[in-house]
Amino acid sequence: xxxxxxxxxxxxxxxxxxxxxQASGIPELRRTxxxxxxxxxxxxxxxxxxxxxGLGLKEIQAVIATIDPLPGAREFLDELRTLTQVVILSDxxxxxxxxxxxxxNWPTLFCNTLEVAPSGEITGYKMRCAKSKLTTVKAxxxxxxxxxxxxxxxxxxxxxxxxxxxxLFKSTDQIKADYPDIPAFEEFDDLLNAIKKVL
Length: 199
Hints:
alpha/beta
């Protein structure tokens, strides 16, 4: 039995931190896992920037409420879910993702959680498990699933390479150049057709 594992930000929805960077006028918050492979380092740095500017969960959630899925993402997911099981594996947080999941017709999402003070300050974060995307793919494989994965960033590469098939989607020129053996697509129809071929 197959299961498709998809990244969320940059693949199905815009990057939340980039949107927040634009809305808050803090350009350094544009850094994502496309730029920094070490997620712990990236998140620790982000929390420091938020604290420095006195920003918390409420301000980020207000921006997330204005974000819509990428054009065609919901239709792609809806059709893919008629063909096979699908799970979204994301390093985002449940406090960020819920309104976006509503706009995507409530697909299954595995993500992390934020630690938030009563004041709304984000004081830390709790990862669901170490190397969460690869760990989850390996767990699914241990249950008898053959995994097919797609993502755009450094933190997606392990799950993409670990399965029956894997694809880059809307990735950077640098990642595509560094991993020329991974098929890369820019349009949902092309990704859907590639997945259909390996189902």
